[in-house]
Amino acid sequence: MAQLSLLNISGKDGARQRLQALRQELNLHAHRYYVLDDPILADAEYDRLFQELVALERQYPELITPDSPSQRVGGAPLAQFATVPHAVPMLSLENAFGGDDLVDFEERLFRFLQSREPIAYVTEPKLDGLAVELVYEDGLFTLGSTRGDGLVGEDISNNLKTIPTIPLRLLAPHGETIPKRIEVRGEVFIGLADFKKLNEERGKVGEPLFANPRNGAAGSLRQLDPKITATRPLDFFVYGVSDTTALPCTTQHELLQYLGRLGFKVNPLVHICRSIAEVVSQFALLREKRPTLPYDIDGMVVKVNDFALQERLGAKARSPRWAIAAKFPASQATTRLLAVEFGVGRTGAITPVAILEPVKIGGVTVSRATLHNEDELRRKGLMLGDTVLVQRAGDVIPEVVKPVIENRTGQEQPVIMPTTCPECGFALVRIEQEAITRCPNPDCPAQRVRGLIHFAGKSGMDIEGLGKKAVEQLVGQGLIQDIPDIYQLEAGDLAGLDGWGEKSAENAVRAIEASRTPTLAKFLAALGIRHVGEVTAQLLARNFASLARISQAGEADFLHIEGIGAQMAASLVEHFRDPAVREMLARLEDLGVRVQEEQPAAESGGTLADSVFLFTGALARLSRHEAKARIKELGGQVASGISRKVTHVVLGESPGSKLTKARDLGLTVITEDEFLRLIGR
Ligand code: IVH
In 31-90, where does DSSP find H-type helix? Predict the structure, then answer.
C-alpha cells in the first residue's frame, strides 16, 4: 500500500506527489469499502483524506487527473449521448428454460465438437440490469458505453464514473500485468434495498416511481446530467471481456479471478461445474437462493469454461455457441384484460377480478387476477382490452400491476362498476371511509358460501375434507345452507356425491366431529366477524375467556382491550346482537358444539404465553430487537427458524423464503399491523 508522506508538500512538485499518493490511497480504500465490502480505514479518516485531495486540487486544478476520486461526479450535463461502436460486438445469449434445455445445449456442443469429452462450465447469476462496456487504456478508465444494438452503443462514461464499484484506474497487485487496452463487460444494477429507498424518496417528492430495479438502473444510467446519476445507488458486477487473447487466463473462471484482482466486483455465486448435471443442480440451487439475494436475478448464465473450447465453438449471428442463459420462470408477464368480474366476498365486499387472456407466469397459467377493490381499479386506470402487466406477488397470488398504455389502440372500453349485487341483485352500498362497496343483503347466497368456506377453512375451524370445493359442492347439492348444517352431515350424505367415497366421507365426518370442541379463539376467528381476524380473536379469547361473556359485552368492554379499536368493537356488538347470529349459536349448542373456555391471561402467565413468533422481512415501525423484547415481556417466545412450533409468522417488507415455507406448513401469517395490535401498540 502506498505510503503517505506528509513532508514536503511545498510547491507544485510536492503537490503532485502528494496528490498521486492520495489518489492511490483513496482508490485502494474505495475498493476495499465498495467492492470487497471489507474496509480497513475509518470513514472519517477516508473523508479527511478526500478533503485534503479536494483542497489540493482546488489549489492546482492543472494537476487533476481523470482517475482522481474527485472526478466521479465531474462531468457536465450533455445535450445528448455520443454513439460509440463496440470493437467486438456485444452479443446476447440464447435462452434455456429448464434442465432439459440445458441437456440439449450440451448435446449441441457435443455434436458441434464431434466429441463427447466431458465439458467444464462456469455458472454465473444472470443479473437483471443493463449491460455495459468499460474501456481501460494503460489501466485508466477512458470510455464506458451501453450495449445499444450490440454493434453501436452510447457513450455514458461520465455516468459510469459515478458508480463506486467501477474502478477509475485498474489495480495491479503483486506486479499483475495490466493490458495496454482492455474492454471489460458487465452489468449495472440497483440492489433491492437501495431500490426501495430510492422509490420511497421519489414518492416523497412526488416523482414517478420506477416499476422495478432494472428500470431504475436504466433511467439512472441514461441521465444526461451525471450529477443526477451520482445520486442513484448504482452498482456493477463484471462478467467478461470483449477479447481474451492477450490476457493471462485460459478459462472463464481464471478470467473472473483476474478481473477481481484488477479491482472489479465479481459475483460471489460463480461456480465451476464438471458436468451438465452439476449445472442443472446449480440452477435449482440458485433458484432457491433467489428470494434471499439482495439484488434481482432472472436466471443463470452457463459458459463453457475453457477459452480454447469457446474459440472452437464460436458464435452464431447474435449469440455465442459456448454460452446460454438458463432463465427462471418469469414471475411477470403481459397479457390482455378481457373482462372484469365482480365477486362478492364473505363480508359482502365487492371485489373486482381481472379476467385475463391465459398467460404462463412462473410455470403457472394465470387467467384471473385480483384487482383488490374499486379504488385500486380506478387508481390503476385499467380499461377493457388493455395490455396489462401481471405478476405473481410473493410467487403466489397473481395481480395486475398496470396497463401498458403504449399498446392502446383506442378500442379499449371503460370498466363499468356495478350498482347491484352480481349474486343477489340487492342495491350495493358504498362505505366511504373503507373505500369498499358492499352488498348489504345478509342472505346473499355468495356471502353465505364464502362464510361457510371460511368457517371450515384453515383460518377457521380447519376441518379436513371440507375445503372450498367441497363446501361449494355441498351448498350446491342443498346439503348445507348455514354453519349448524355442517354438524348435521352424515357420512351417508357425502358418500354418494361426485368425487366422494365411503372412506373420504367417513374421514370428513370424523373431522367435523373433532371440531365440536374448538378453542374460543379458533371459533371466534371462524365466525368471520367483520374486522375480526385470527389475531383479534386471540386477544378476545384471552381477555374474555368465554363466548357467553363476549356475546354479552358492550362496546366499552371491548375498547378496554389494547389492540381493539372502535371499528372492531362496533362490529362485534353488531354481530352478537343480530338475532340470526344468536339463533345460529343456540343451534350449534343444541348440536353439541362446545366452545372451550380460555384460561384467563393472568393465570397462564402473560398474554402471549404459548405464542411462538417468527419474523420474516423488515419491520417498518419497530426494530426486531424491540419486537423481541416486547414478546418476551408478554410471556411469548421468538423462534429463529421455521417449524411447526411457530404460532405466528410476522410478515415484514420483502419477506424471505421463510414465508413460502410458512405457507407450506399452513402456519398463521400476520402483518406488522396485526402484530402491533397483539403486543398492544
Ligand atoms: S455473458 C457473449 N454473463 O444477459 C456473452 N451476460 O443476453 C454475453 N447478463 O444483456 C453476455 N448477467 O447483460 C453474461 N453473468 C452474465 C450476465 C449476463 C447478466 C446479461 C447481459 C446481456 C444478457 C445476455
Answer: 43-59
How many angstroms separate the alpha carbon of residue 94 from the centre of ligand 1? 10
The CATH topology of domain 332-414 is OB fold (Dihydrolipoamide Acetyltransferase, E2P) (2.40.50)
Q: Would you name the residues annotated as active-site residues?
A: 126
**Domain covering 95-327: architecture:** 2-Layer Sandwich (3.30)
pLDDT of residue 1: 44
- Vertex 401, ends 398 and 405: CA angle to 5°? 140
Cβ–Cβ < 8 Å for 653, 510: no
Asked whether 158 and 170 are in contact (CB, 8 A), the reply is no
CA-proximal residue: ligand 1, atom 10 (nearest): 131
Which residues of the chain does CATH 1.10.150.20 include? 445-514, 520-601
- Superfamily name and number for 6-73: Helix hairpin bin (1.10.287.610)
Instruction: Return d(Cα 563, Cα 565) in angstroms, integer.
Output: 6
pLDDT > 70: percent of the chain: 95
Q: Which residues line ligand 1 (CB under 6 A)?
A: 91-93, 124, 126-127, 131, 147, 187, 239-240, 301, 320, 323, 325
Burial letters for 369-407: b for 16+ Cβ neighbours within 10 Å, e otherwise?
bbbbbbebbeebebbbbbbbbbbbeebeebbbbebeeee
Give tens-digit pLDDT for 248-276. Answer: 999 999 999 999 999 999 999 999 999 99
Beta strand segments in 412-459, E: 413-414, 429-431, 436-438
Kindly report, residue by residue over 479-509, the tens digit of the pLDDT: 999 999 999 999 999 998 999 999 999 999 9
DSSP label at residue 61: G
131 CA distance to ligand 1 middle (Å): 7
Lowest mean pLDDT among 488-497, 553-562, 631-640: 631-640
User: Topology of 605-678 in CATH?
Assistant: Rossmann fold (3.40.50)
Compute CA 344 distance to the chain's CA centroid, rounded to the nearest angstrom.
Answer: 29
Show the beta-strand stretches assigned E in 93-233: 95-96, 121-127, 130-137, 140-146, 152-154, 181-190
CATH code assigned to 445-514: 1.10.150.20
CATH architecture of 520-601: Orthogonal Bundle (1.10)
